[in-house]
């Protein structure tokens, strides 16, 4: 086991803006987890702490081996039951942060001041910052360090002039969920200056730009895990 630790961050949201059940997306946690867990210690965290809710639709959709193993894994169950509150997390304990998707991050993590501060600390401490699907929405408040030349003005968004991806508006439209969240992640990333990249709807796409690693959709979870593994070994 490597001494480096990774923080998986989950949403605490149970319902979307339209009232449908929501939560974190099963495959987007399971697939990267089993790539990383054999080599690194992984802690779980969420805005409200223990037992972040899984999106029941993702449980119905994903019957693959890793997803089913994740649901039954006693270690995972313990980690979920004892998930840290974001306010109790010390970024200094970790080498990387990973945001699991699901519609929830757009609703809670994107504007949660505790999350925004934590993600900024990770980024400005030269740690790896990663997210998949709707997860990049948790990073829209993160900026590069202030420029001392400008007298300490806030730095630019971490997405400005960096390559990135997330669930596309086309995919959201096909899911008929555009009104379930307060903003569209693709639109926001583009507004923030991202060099947005994507594959076809629900095809895997992982984008790496330095310490920023993003995945497009549920099919990209494994690839994000693999990219994170490579980055940690560098």
Automatic annotation (TrEMBL):
Record EC number: 4.2.1.130
Keywords linked to the UniProt accession: Glutamine amidotransferase, Lyase, Stress response, Transferase
InterPro entries associated with the record: Class_I_gatase-like, DJ-1/PfpI, Prot/Nucl_acid_deglycase
Record-stated family: Belongs to the peptidase C56 family. HSP31-like subfamily.
Species assigned in the record: Schizophyllum amplum
All copies of domain DJ-1/PfpI, residue ranges: 80-222
Transferase listed as a keyword: yes
Entry protein name: D-lactate dehydratase
GO biological-process terms attached to the record: methylglyoxal catabolic process to D-lactate via S-lactoyl-glutathione
GO cellular component, one term: cytoplasm
Gene Ontology MF, one: transferase activity
Reactions performed catalytically: methylglyoxal + H2O = (R)-lactate + H(+)
One Pfam family in the UniProt entry: DJ-1_PfpI
Gene3D superfamilies attached to this UniProt entry: 3.40.50.880
EC class (word): lyase
């Amino acid at each position: 086991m490597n001494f480096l630790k990774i923080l998986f961050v989950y949403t605490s949201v149970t319902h979307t803006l339209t009232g449908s059940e929501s939560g974190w997306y099963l495959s987007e946690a399971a697939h990267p987890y089993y790539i990383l867990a054999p080599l690194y210690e992984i802690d779980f965290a969420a805005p409200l702490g223990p037992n972040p809710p899984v999106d029941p639709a993702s449980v119905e959709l994903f019957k693959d081996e890793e997803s089913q193993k994740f649901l039954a894994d006693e270690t995972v169950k313990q980690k979920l039951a004892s998930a840290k509150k974001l306010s109790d997390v010390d970024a200094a304990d970790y080498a990387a942060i990973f945001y699991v998707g699901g519609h929830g991050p757009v609703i809670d993590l994107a504007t949660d001041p505790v999350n925004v501060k934590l993600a900024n600390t990770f980024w400005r401490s030269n740690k790896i910052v990663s997210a998949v699907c709707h997860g990049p929405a948790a990073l829209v408040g993160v900026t590069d360090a202030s420029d001392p030349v400008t007298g300490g003005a806030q730095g630019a968004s971490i997405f400005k002039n960096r390559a990135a991806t997330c669930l596309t508006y086309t995919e959201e439209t096909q899911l008929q969920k555009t009104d379930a969240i307060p903003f569209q992640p693709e639109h926001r990333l583009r507004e923030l200056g991202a060099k947005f990249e994507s594959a076809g709807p629900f095809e895997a796409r992982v984008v790496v730009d330095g310490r920023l690693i993003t995945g497009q959709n549920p099919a990209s979870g494994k690839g994000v895990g693999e990219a994170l593994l490579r980055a940690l070994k560098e």
